[in-house]
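User: Fold this; tokens only.

Assistant: Input:
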Amino acid sequence: MYAAHFVIFLCVLLQRFAPLTLGLYVLFVAGQIVRARIEERKLAATFPEYEAYRRTTGMFFPRLFQNA
């Protein structure tokens, strides 16, 4: 969901590019990062197995290569 929002709003930014929209996009991305970190802490506290899942999955985009 986060990745889709990043892409959608990036497309809107590119259509209506201006310093203001660029600033708003940067604020949006920063806010989503903070929100995702809070959400991950809550998930880890509620579901102990979430930590193992988080180590193998990207925060916003899927990991293409796993560490061996």
